[in-house]
Amino acid sequence: MAKSAELVTTPLQTTRQRRSRQERQNLRNGLLFAAPAIIGFLLFVAYPIAASVYYSFTSYSILQPGHWVGLENYRELLTEDPIFYTALFNTFYMAVVTIPLSIVLAMGLAMLLNLKVRGQSVYRTIFYLPTIVPFVASSLLWLWIFNPQYGLINTLLWYVGIQGPGWLGDPAWSKPALVIMLLWGVGNWMIIYLAGLQDVPQELYEAAEIDGARWWAKTRHLTLPFMSPYILYSLILQLIGIFQYFTQPQVMTQGGPVDSTRVYALYLYDMAFRFFRMGYASAMAWLLFMLVVVLTVIIFKSSARRVYYAGQ
Amino acid sequence: MANVTNARPAPLGRAPSRSARQAKTIRSIAAHTALVALSLVFLVPFLWLLSTSLKPDTQILVFPPVWIPQPITIQQYVLGLSYIPFLTYLKNTAIYCGLSVVGCVISSSLVAYSLARIRWSGRELLFAVIIATLMVPAQVTLIPLFLVFKNLGWIGSLKPLVVPYFFLQPFSIFLLRQFFLTIPHELSEAARVDGANEFRIYWSVIMPLARPVLATVGLFTFLGTWNDYLGPLIYLNDPSQYTLSLGLAQFQGEHNVLWGPLMAVSVVMIVPVLIAFFFTQRTFIQGITMTGIKG
User: Fold this and answer.
1) CA–CA separation, B244 vs B253, rounded Å?
2) First to last CA, chain A
3) For A15-24, A140-149, A236-245, B88-97, which range has the lowest pLDDT when averaged over its residues?
4) Residues in B 234-293 with any Cβ partner in A closer than 8 A
5) CA of A172 to nearest chain B CA: how many angstroms apart?
6) Nearest to residue A81, comparing CAs of A284, A291, A292, A288?
7) B219 part of a folded domain
């Protein structure tokens, strides 16, 4: 509080001086309060990002300090590493299949809940519950559910006369199994969509009803336009999320069988922490980052005309 | 809302009376049917988990399965909790969660206060930067951070996991900032006139008002750390330091077929989260909604 003492002793202040003094004090306080974030940003974000760029151009391994190799890591990744493309394909598969299904499912659930039936909060809790289960616990649970011989799913299929597949043990079915498991956890998006649905002006629905609009017309021309910002938001966040999808395949399959669940983040982890190829893994991380940025920009650009922001 | 519609003068000469009410009843029954069916689908994995964890050994690997354990036994829990050093894992997890929650609540509230309540040039820029960091995939910073912590000699301790929570937590900062913005500035001004300095205003005026949001932030941090697998996997290398997530996953690798104990320990890991959720459901849902576009 030395500053405030100074403040008092200064005679003949003009308003302007006082204001600039106040500004300076605000700046000092502002920086002081924000210090954790500023330090944290420099230490845990900015420096690692810069270092990661650098490492991606070196042969850094944990055992020996790396030397500069230029674009060699990128070249090897793109031209000599078939597993890199397998991992990329697996991640794209997960994104392309999971995200649309999860948007449709979450929206369907939210719309059902938005009918304001009795017991809404009970249903909401039930649909939300899977999302709070720790990933490791849910991975083990689903490993057991997908057990080809004694698991829940194949048992239920057997009741209706279907011989279930080998799921996580079968390269053709391992990714669909992971998709099913991810869909179990759509509760988060359902809650966010539900909040959005409750913001759609009710008068518009009533007006549409008076005009004789049926359910699909109302959904198509009213609900979806109003929900489009929410869908865009969830689309982008799910995309970022799925590129980092790691825990479930790591716990359940370790990438197998025959690399069918070796997703991008899993391959990156193996490179860095099993084969200790830190430089190579850094290059992978940067390709991932650039891919996410490019896809996000494409989504933003291509959706600009389709997304409706109320109040604009 | 349907009632409001019914109260209007009937459009196009249609009587709102019986047929409308019937349609409403039918719609409500259809909605309930769909919701009950979907609820079952979402709940069945939980029931399967619980059922397996309460079965005697002889009823787990059988086909067709025994749905309701005969008799119900806690044998799998006894087995599961003694196979792994459960209490050690629990203690490690509790330390990780506890320190992270404290660190996150303190640091994020300070930063959010600066962003929302102090007028200084550069705060918009800082906020934009903080939000932008949410876009950076963890994989990008993972390797350099690992090397930094390794050089500090922190690998094999909880430090690399906990310390970042005392600095930059974008998501929590965002939540708190949005809330701080809604508190009337007159409250701060009144305290200032009474001679309170900035820290005092933060601590005695704003923080008490923010309790529900602080609880939300704490809760999300608790869940995030309780759930965390990648962090412990990378930074912890001695089984005596393992958290529950890591310990449980290792357990699966070693004893591939012991479904009973595995399910029992999973139940034990889920229960605290469920309890936390049920006690704070409202705060919880609000928190998720706030992170939508509403903020």
Assistant:
1) 14
2) 46
3) A15-24
4) 234, 244-246, 248-249, 252, 259, 262-263, 266, 269-270, 273-274, 277, 281, 285, 288-289, 291-293
5) 22
6) A284
7) yes
Q: Please state the φ and ψ torsions of residue A128, each to the nearest 5 degrees.
A: -85, -30
Structural domain total, chain B: 2
Interface predicted TM-score (ipTM): 0.85
Structure confidence by residue, pLDDT tens digits, A18-60:
778 888 899 999 999 999 999 999 999 999 999 999 999 998 8
Task: Write out chain A residues lying below 8 Å of B244, CB-based.
Answer: 134, 136
Q: How many CB atoms lie within 10 A of CB A100?
A: 12
Interface of A with B in 48-107 (CB under 8 A): 48-49, 51-52, 55, 62
Domain with residue B111: its CATH number is: 1.10.3720.10
Q: Of the candidates A68, A266, A46, which has an alpha carbon nearest to the alpha carbon of residue B145? A: A46
Q: Are residues B186 and B290 in the same domain?
A: yes
Contact A134 B227 (CB under 8 A): yes
Rounded to a whole number, what is the distance in Å from the CA of A122 to chain B's nearest CA?
A: 10
The whole-model pTM stands at: 0.87
CA distances in angstroms from B254 to A50, A170, B67, B83, listed in the order given? 39, 22, 27, 11
Angle between helices B211-227 and B170-181 (to 10 degrees): 170
Q: Tell whether B125 is within 8 A of chain A (Cβ).
A: no
**Residue B239 falls within a domain, yes or no?**
yes
- Residue B249 domain boundaries: 80-294
Give which of A302, A301, A185 is closest to A245, Cα–Cα. A185
Find all residues with CB under 8 Å of B123, minimum gap 6, and list them: A30, A34, B114, B115
**A251·B61 Cβ contact <8 A:** no
Domains located in chain A, CATH noted: 2-45 (no CATH), 82-303 (1.10.3720.10)
- Spatial contact of B230 and A246, defined as CB atoms under 8 Å apart: yes
Integer Cα distance of B116 and B4 in angstroms: 41
Considering the domain architecture, whether residues B13 and B90 belong to the same structural domain is answered as: no
Which residues of chain B are within 8 Å of residue A49 when distances are taken between CB atoms? 136, 140-141, 144
C-alpha distance across the termini of chain B, in Å: 26
Q: Is B74 inside any structural domain?
A: no
